[in-house]
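Hi R.,

As promised on Friday, here is the backbone we talked about, encoded as C-alpha coordinates. Could you run it through your design pipeline when you get a chance and send me back a sequence?
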Protein backbone atom coordinates (compact mmCIF):
# COMPACT_ATOMS: atom_id res chain seq x y z
CA UNK A 1 0.00 0.00 0.00
CA UNK A 2 1.42 3.37 -1.05
CA UNK A 3 2.13 5.75 1.84
CA UNK A 4 0.40 9.10 1.49
CA UNK A 5 2.81 11.99 1.03
CA UNK A 6 2.67 14.69 3.71
CA UNK A 7 1.20 18.00 2.61
CA UNK A 8 3.44 20.90 3.60
CA UNK A 9 2.28 24.52 3.58
CA UNK A 10 5.22 26.90 3.09
CA UNK A 11 4.77 30.53 4.13
CA UNK A 12 7.00 33.27 2.74
CA UNK A 13 6.86 36.96 3.58
CA UNK A 14 7.39 38.19 0.00
CA UNK A 15 6.98 37.03 -3.59
CA UNK A 16 10.33 38.10 -5.02
CA UNK A 17 13.23 35.79 -5.78
CA UNK A 18 16.05 36.82 -3.47
CA UNK A 19 18.13 34.63 -1.14
CA UNK A 20 15.51 33.19 1.22
CA UNK A 21 13.00 32.45 -1.51
CA UNK A 22 15.66 31.04 -3.81
CA UNK A 23 16.56 28.61 -1.03
CA UNK A 24 12.89 27.78 -0.49
CA UNK A 25 12.34 27.19 -4.21
CA UNK A 26 15.34 24.86 -4.40
CA UNK A 27 14.10 22.93 -1.34
CA UNK A 28 10.68 22.47 -2.92
CA UNK A 29 12.28 21.39 -6.20
CA UNK A 30 14.33 18.71 -4.44
CA UNK A 31 11.46 17.35 -2.33
CA UNK A 32 9.05 17.42 -5.27
CA UNK A 33 11.58 15.68 -7.52
CA UNK A 34 11.84 12.81 -5.04
CA UNK A 35 8.03 12.81 -4.64
CA UNK A 36 8.44 13.08 -0.88
CA UNK A 37 5.85 15.79 -0.17
CA UNK A 38 2.96 17.70 -1.68
CA UNK A 39 3.99 21.36 -1.40
CA UNK A 40 1.62 24.33 -1.17
CA UNK A 41 2.95 27.87 -0.85
CA UNK A 42 1.24 30.83 0.82
CA UNK A 43 2.41 34.27 -0.34
CA UNK A 44 1.16 37.79 0.42
CA UNK A 45 0.95 38.55 -3.31
CA UNK A 46 1.97 37.25 -6.73
CA UNK A 47 5.51 37.75 -8.02
CA UNK A 48 8.53 36.06 -9.55
CA UNK A 49 8.48 33.24 -6.98
CA UNK A 50 4.83 32.42 -7.68
CA UNK A 51 5.57 32.44 -11.42
CA UNK A 52 8.40 29.95 -10.95
CA UNK A 53 6.28 27.75 -8.68
CA UNK A 54 3.40 27.77 -11.17
CA UNK A 55 5.84 26.62 -13.85
CA UNK A 56 6.73 23.48 -11.89
CA UNK A 57 3.15 22.71 -10.90
CA UNK A 58 3.19 23.85 -7.27
CA UNK A 59 -0.05 25.18 -5.81
CA UNK A 60 0.28 28.84 -4.76
CA UNK A 61 -2.23 30.62 -2.54
CA UNK A 62 -2.07 34.40 -2.25
CA UNK A 63 -3.60 36.37 0.58
CA UNK A 64 -2.32 39.69 1.90
CA UNK A 65 -0.64 39.73 5.30
CA UNK A 66 1.92 41.91 7.06
CA UNK A 67 5.32 41.26 8.56
CA UNK A 68 5.44 40.88 12.35
CA UNK A 69 8.08 43.63 12.42
CA UNK A 70 8.31 47.33 11.57
CA UNK A 71 11.29 49.22 10.19
CA UNK A 72 11.69 51.92 12.81
CA UNK A 73 11.19 52.59 16.52
CA UNK A 74 8.96 55.24 18.05
CA UNK A 75 5.35 55.53 19.15
CA UNK A 76 3.83 55.86 15.65
CA UNK A 77 5.67 52.80 14.35
CA UNK A 78 4.65 50.82 17.43
CA UNK A 79 1.00 51.70 16.85
CA UNK A 80 1.38 50.79 13.18
CA UNK A 81 2.86 47.44 14.18
CA UNK A 82 0.03 46.68 16.61
CA UNK A 83 -2.59 47.60 13.99
CA UNK A 84 -0.92 45.36 11.42
CA UNK A 85 -0.79 42.49 13.90
CA UNK A 86 -4.51 42.90 14.60
CA UNK A 87 -5.19 43.01 10.86
CA UNK A 88 -3.16 39.81 10.42
CA UNK A 89 -5.05 38.12 13.22
CA UNK A 90 -8.44 38.84 11.64
CA UNK A 91 -7.23 37.62 8.25
CA UNK A 92 -5.82 34.39 9.69
CA UNK A 93 -9.39 33.09 9.78
CA UNK A 94 -9.83 33.90 6.08
CA UNK A 95 -6.55 32.15 5.28
CA UNK A 96 -7.62 29.18 7.40
CA UNK A 97 -10.83 28.75 5.37
CA UNK A 98 -8.79 28.94 2.15
CA UNK A 99 -6.33 26.22 3.11
CA UNK A 100 -8.19 23.78 5.37
CA UNK A 101 -9.45 21.69 2.43
CA UNK A 102 -5.87 20.67 1.55
CA UNK A 103 -5.41 18.45 4.64
CA UNK A 104 -2.10 20.05 5.57
CA UNK A 105 0.25 18.06 7.83
CA UNK A 106 3.04 20.57 8.43
CA UNK A 107 3.31 24.34 8.24
CA UNK A 108 6.80 25.57 7.35
CA UNK A 109 7.38 29.32 7.84
CA UNK A 110 10.33 30.45 5.72
CA UNK A 111 11.30 33.58 7.68
CA UNK A 112 11.57 34.93 11.21
CA UNK A 113 9.55 38.07 10.40
CA UNK A 114 6.15 36.42 9.88
CA UNK A 115 4.23 34.78 12.74
CA UNK A 116 0.94 33.76 11.10
CA UNK A 117 2.24 30.20 10.87
CA UNK A 118 2.03 29.97 14.65
CA UNK A 119 -1.69 30.78 14.68
CA UNK A 120 -2.51 28.64 11.66
CA UNK A 121 -0.73 25.60 13.11
CA UNK A 122 -2.74 25.93 16.33
CA UNK A 123 -6.03 26.31 14.45
CA UNK A 124 -5.26 23.34 12.19
CA UNK A 125 -3.67 21.24 14.94
CA UNK A 126 -0.59 20.51 12.85
CA UNK A 127 3.17 20.75 13.35
CA UNK A 128 4.92 24.06 12.79
CA UNK A 129 8.50 24.38 11.53
CA UNK A 130 9.95 27.89 11.80
CA UNK A 131 12.85 28.39 9.39
CA UNK A 132 14.90 31.35 10.60
CA UNK A 133 17.11 32.77 7.87
CA UNK A 134 18.04 36.25 9.12
CA UNK A 135 19.16 38.43 12.00
CA UNK A 136 16.03 40.57 11.77
CA UNK A 137 17.01 43.09 14.42
CA UNK A 138 20.78 43.21 14.02
CA UNK A 139 21.01 43.03 10.22
CA UNK A 140 17.89 44.86 9.05
CA UNK A 141 17.28 46.86 12.26
CA UNK A 142 13.65 45.72 12.41
CA UNK A 143 11.56 46.20 15.55
CA UNK A 144 9.00 43.59 16.58
CA UNK A 145 5.43 44.83 16.17
CA UNK A 146 4.27 43.51 19.55
CA UNK A 147 7.57 44.02 21.33
CA UNK A 148 10.60 41.82 21.82
CA UNK A 149 9.24 39.90 24.84
CA UNK A 150 6.21 38.65 22.93
CA UNK A 151 8.34 37.87 19.86
CA UNK A 152 10.73 35.77 21.93
CA UNK A 153 7.78 33.97 23.52
CA UNK A 154 6.43 33.20 20.04
CA UNK A 155 9.76 31.69 18.98
CA UNK A 156 10.02 29.70 22.20
CA UNK A 157 6.47 28.33 22.24
CA UNK A 158 5.14 28.75 18.70
CA UNK A 159 7.15 26.15 16.81
CA UNK A 160 7.58 22.40 17.11
CA UNK A 161 11.07 22.87 15.72
CA UNK A 162 13.16 25.87 14.69
CA UNK A 163 15.58 25.53 11.79
CA UNK A 164 18.49 27.96 11.72
CA UNK A 165 20.88 28.29 8.81
CA UNK A 166 24.09 28.93 10.74
CA UNK A 167 25.81 28.40 14.06
CA UNK A 168 25.70 32.17 14.62
CA UNK A 169 21.89 32.06 14.51
CA UNK A 170 21.77 28.96 16.69
CA UNK A 171 23.82 30.64 19.41
CA UNK A 172 21.65 33.75 19.32
CA UNK A 173 18.26 31.99 19.44
CA UNK A 174 19.45 29.56 22.11
CA UNK A 175 19.33 32.49 24.53
CA UNK A 176 15.52 32.35 24.61
CA UNK A 177 14.56 29.10 22.85
CA UNK A 178 15.21 25.64 24.30
CA UNK A 179 18.43 24.59 22.49
CA UNK A 180 17.14 21.06 21.87
CA UNK A 181 14.27 22.60 19.87
CA UNK A 182 16.71 24.23 17.43
CA UNK A 183 18.33 22.39 14.54
CA UNK A 184 21.03 23.84 12.29
CA UNK A 185 20.67 23.04 8.60
CA UNK A 186 22.79 24.99 6.15
CA UNK A 187 21.22 26.32 2.96
CA UNK A 188 21.64 24.16 -0.12
CA UNK A 189 22.36 24.99 -3.75
CA UNK A 190 21.94 22.91 -6.89
CA UNK A 191 25.54 21.94 -7.66
CA UNK A 192 24.68 20.96 -11.24
CA UNK A 193 23.82 24.58 -12.05
CA UNK A 194 27.48 25.48 -11.69
CA UNK A 195 29.02 22.93 -14.08
CA UNK A 196 30.63 25.37 -16.52
CA UNK A 197 33.97 25.94 -18.23
CA UNK A 198 36.83 26.78 -15.85
CA UNK A 199 38.49 29.18 -18.31
CA UNK A 200 37.93 32.87 -17.51
CA UNK A 201 39.52 35.88 -19.15
CA UNK A 202 42.21 37.38 -16.93
CA UNK A 203 43.00 40.81 -18.38
CA UNK A 204 40.74 42.51 -15.83
CA UNK A 205 39.95 41.27 -12.31
CA UNK A 206 36.14 41.15 -12.36
CA UNK A 207 34.72 41.63 -8.84
CA UNK A 208 31.09 40.84 -8.02
CA UNK A 209 29.06 42.33 -5.19
CA UNK A 210 25.67 40.61 -5.04
CA UNK A 211 22.70 41.39 -2.82
CA UNK A 212 20.03 43.90 -1.88
CA UNK A 213 21.46 47.42 -1.83
CA UNK A 214 21.02 48.16 1.87
CA UNK A 215 23.13 50.01 4.46
CA UNK A 216 23.70 46.78 6.41
CA UNK A 217 25.22 45.20 3.27
CA UNK A 218 27.91 47.94 3.19
CA UNK A 219 28.27 48.31 -0.55
CA UNK A 220 29.81 51.72 0.23
CA UNK A 221 32.78 50.03 1.91
CA UNK A 222 33.50 47.98 -1.20
CA UNK A 223 33.27 50.97 -3.55
CA UNK A 224 35.67 52.91 -1.32
CA UNK A 225 38.08 49.96 -1.37
CA UNK A 226 38.03 50.07 -5.18
CA UNK A 227 38.80 53.78 -4.98
CA UNK A 228 41.89 53.05 -2.86
CA UNK A 229 43.07 50.43 -5.35
CA UNK A 230 42.60 52.77 -8.31
CA UNK A 231 43.95 55.99 -6.81
CA UNK A 232 46.51 54.81 -4.23
CA UNK A 233 47.71 51.50 -5.68
CA UNK A 234 47.37 52.75 -9.28
CA UNK A 235 45.50 49.60 -10.28
CA UNK A 236 43.52 49.91 -13.51
CA UNK A 237 42.82 46.23 -14.30
CA UNK A 238 39.85 45.84 -11.94
CA UNK A 239 36.10 46.32 -12.27
CA UNK A 240 33.40 46.12 -9.60
CA UNK A 241 30.00 44.81 -10.70
CA UNK A 242 27.16 45.54 -8.26
CA UNK A 243 24.06 43.35 -8.62
CA UNK A 244 20.79 43.91 -6.76
CA UNK A 245 17.87 46.28 -6.34
CA UNK A 246 18.01 49.10 -3.83
CA UNK A 247 16.16 49.19 -0.50
CA UNK A 248 15.88 52.99 -0.76
CA UNK A 249 16.38 55.76 -3.29
CA UNK A 250 18.51 57.69 -0.80
CA UNK A 251 20.99 54.85 -0.24
CA UNK A 252 21.31 54.16 -3.96
CA UNK A 253 21.96 57.86 -4.51
CA UNK A 254 24.67 57.79 -1.83
CA UNK A 255 26.39 54.88 -3.57
CA UNK A 256 26.31 56.60 -6.95
CA UNK A 257 27.71 59.77 -5.37
CA UNK A 258 30.67 57.79 -4.00
CA UNK A 259 31.36 56.52 -7.51
CA UNK A 260 31.20 59.94 -9.16
CA UNK A 261 33.06 61.84 -6.43
CA UNK A 262 35.94 59.35 -6.71
CA UNK A 263 35.92 59.27 -10.53
CA UNK A 264 35.15 55.55 -10.61
CA UNK A 265 32.70 55.52 -13.50
CA UNK A 266 35.04 53.29 -15.51
CA UNK A 267 35.58 50.90 -12.59
CA UNK A 268 32.12 50.40 -11.06
CA UNK A 269 28.88 49.29 -12.75
CA UNK A 270 25.41 49.01 -11.19
CA UNK A 271 23.51 46.20 -12.94
CA UNK A 272 20.33 46.13 -10.83
CA UNK A 273 18.56 42.83 -10.20
CA UNK A 274 19.66 39.95 -12.45
CA UNK A 275 17.69 36.70 -12.40
CA UNK A 276 20.30 34.34 -13.86
CA UNK A 277 23.27 35.01 -11.59
CA UNK A 278 24.84 31.62 -12.33
CA UNK A 279 25.76 32.67 -15.85
CA UNK A 280 26.94 36.11 -14.69
CA UNK A 281 29.17 34.73 -11.94
CA UNK A 282 30.80 32.31 -14.36
CA UNK A 283 32.67 35.32 -15.77
CA UNK A 284 33.72 36.78 -12.39
CA UNK A 285 36.96 36.24 -10.45
CA UNK A 286 36.26 37.65 -6.97
CA UNK A 287 33.05 37.92 -4.95
CA UNK A 288 32.67 40.21 -1.95
CA UNK A 289 30.22 40.05 0.94
CA UNK A 290 30.70 43.02 3.28
CA UNK A 291 27.54 42.62 5.38
CA UNK A 292 27.13 42.94 9.12
CA UNK A 293 25.31 40.14 10.96
CA UNK A 294 24.97 37.99 7.85
CA UNK A 295 22.86 34.99 8.88
CA UNK A 296 24.39 32.62 6.33
CA UNK A 297 25.63 34.18 3.13
CA UNK A 298 24.15 32.06 0.36
CA UNK A 299 25.99 34.21 -2.15
CA UNK A 300 29.31 33.20 -0.55
CA UNK A 301 28.63 29.59 -1.55
CA UNK A 302 27.57 30.78 -5.00
CA UNK A 303 30.96 32.48 -5.31
CA UNK A 304 32.75 29.26 -4.33
CA UNK A 305 30.74 27.11 -6.73
CA UNK A 306 31.40 29.66 -9.47
CA UNK A 307 35.13 29.15 -8.88
CA UNK A 308 35.63 32.66 -7.57
CA UNK A 309 37.57 33.92 -4.57
CA UNK A 310 35.12 34.77 -1.76
CA UNK A 311 36.09 37.81 0.33
CA UNK A 312 33.85 38.34 3.37
CA UNK A 313 33.60 40.50 6.46
CA UNK A 314 34.17 38.94 9.89
CA UNK A 315 30.55 39.45 10.99
CA UNK A 316 27.69 37.02 11.52
CA UNK A 317 28.07 33.59 9.93
CA UNK A 318 30.63 34.67 7.34
CA UNK A 319 33.56 33.10 9.18
CA UNK A 320 31.68 29.79 9.43
CA UNK A 321 31.84 29.53 5.65
CA UNK A 322 35.21 31.11 4.87
CA UNK A 323 38.52 30.13 6.48
CA UNK A 324 40.93 32.99 5.85
CA UNK A 325 43.58 32.03 3.32
CA UNK A 326 42.08 28.55 2.82
CA UNK A 327 38.59 28.86 1.32
CA UNK A 328 38.69 32.62 0.76
CA UNK A 329 39.68 35.75 2.64
CA UNK A 330 38.23 37.53 5.67
CA UNK A 331 38.52 41.24 6.42
CA UNK A 332 37.45 43.21 9.48
CA UNK A 333 33.93 44.63 9.15
CA UNK A 334 33.98 48.13 7.61
CA UNK A 335 37.78 48.09 7.18
CA UNK A 336 38.13 49.65 3.74
CA UNK A 337 41.92 49.62 3.83
CA UNK A 338 41.96 45.96 4.87
CA UNK A 339 39.62 45.00 2.05
CA UNK A 340 41.72 46.86 -0.51
CA UNK A 341 44.86 45.08 0.72
CA UNK A 342 43.19 41.69 0.28
CA UNK A 343 42.09 42.47 -3.27
CA UNK A 344 45.60 43.69 -4.09
CA UNK A 345 46.99 40.46 -2.60
CA UNK A 346 44.66 38.43 -4.82
CA UNK A 347 45.86 40.33 -7.88
CA UNK A 348 49.48 39.80 -6.92
CA UNK A 349 49.27 36.06 -6.12
CA UNK A 350 47.67 34.10 -8.98
CA UNK A 351 49.06 30.73 -7.83
CA UNK A 352 47.57 31.09 -4.36
CA UNK A 353 44.33 32.18 -5.98
CA UNK A 354 44.09 28.95 -7.97
CA UNK A 355 44.66 26.83 -4.87
CA UNK A 356 42.00 28.64 -2.84
CA UNK A 357 39.47 28.40 -5.68
CA UNK A 358 39.94 24.62 -5.88
CA UNK A 359 39.75 24.11 -2.11
CA UNK A 360 36.66 26.31 -1.75
CA UNK A 361 34.85 24.65 -4.65
CA UNK A 362 35.34 21.17 -3.20
CA UNK A 363 34.29 22.39 0.25
CA UNK A 364 31.07 23.90 -1.14
CA UNK A 365 30.20 20.77 -3.14
CA UNK A 366 30.70 18.50 -0.12
CA UNK A 367 28.75 20.62 2.38
CA UNK A 368 26.17 22.83 0.70
CA UNK A 369 24.29 20.84 -1.91
CA UNK A 370 20.52 21.19 -2.14
CA UNK A 371 20.16 17.40 -1.93
CA UNK A 372 21.83 17.37 1.51
CA UNK A 373 19.65 20.27 2.65
CA UNK A 374 16.42 18.62 1.44
CA UNK A 375 17.35 15.25 2.97
CA UNK A 376 17.86 16.79 6.42
CA UNK A 377 14.64 18.79 6.26
CA UNK A 378 12.60 15.79 5.11
CA UNK A 379 14.08 13.76 7.97
CA UNK A 380 12.89 16.50 10.34
CA UNK A 381 9.38 16.37 8.85
CA UNK A 382 9.31 12.59 9.28
CA UNK A 383 10.40 12.82 12.91
CA UNK A 384 7.77 15.43 13.73
CA UNK A 385 4.98 13.46 12.06
CA UNK A 386 5.92 10.28 13.92
CA UNK A 387 5.90 12.13 17.22
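Update: got your reply. Pasting your designed sequence below so it's all in one thread:
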Amino acid sequence: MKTQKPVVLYISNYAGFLGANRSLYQLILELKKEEQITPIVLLPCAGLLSDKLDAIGVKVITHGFYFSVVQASGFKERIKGVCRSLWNFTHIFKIFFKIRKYNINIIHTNTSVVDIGVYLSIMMKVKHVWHIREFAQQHYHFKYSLGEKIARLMYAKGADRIIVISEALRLYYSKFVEPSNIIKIYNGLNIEDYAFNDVKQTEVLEIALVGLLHPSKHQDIVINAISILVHQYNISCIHLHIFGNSSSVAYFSDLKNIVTSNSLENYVTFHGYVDNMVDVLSHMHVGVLASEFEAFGRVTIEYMLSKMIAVVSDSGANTELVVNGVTGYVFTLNDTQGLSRIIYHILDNPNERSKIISTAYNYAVENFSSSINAKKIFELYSTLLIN
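One thing I noticed while checking it: The CA atoms of residues 217 and 291 lie 4 Å apart.

Thanks again,
M.
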